[in-house]
Amino acid sequence: MKRFTLWATVAVVVGLMAFVIVRADARGRSGWCGHGWHRPGPGNYVAHALNLSDAQRTQIKTIWQAERPTVSARVQELLAENKEMNALAAEENPDQSKVEAVANRQASTIAALLMEKEKMQSKIYGTVLNPDQRVKADELEKRWESRLDRVANHLATQPK
Does the keyword Heme apply (predicted)? Predict the structure, then answer.
């Protein structure tokens, strides 16, 4: 009797697993994730929130493609500086002047990246978005800043 119960349980589990696998494959490209498990990236989220047309998406993609080499070079620069900083930090007694020099270079690279972001944002605001979309974009930015404020306040109130 115990053997029969064991085999029946195994058969039910295998049957359920087969059902789940077939069901996941039947969903197409979603696979195991199903609907809604993965969120769209930030670009798709903003495009959806602003209700961008296909033409506007193409314009934004063109602007991004034009700025991509500059942004890529700056990110590579920042990564190299970060590796240099990590190497200095790994030393037993790092030279503070070298650490400060690398930190200053990192700061200027981050500032250059922020300038690129602002440049792209102003191009998109000025040439792609209509007035209603600009208002929505401003609201999204205010919400983002509000979230950052909450995170900063939460970090500030953490016990020491």
Answer: no
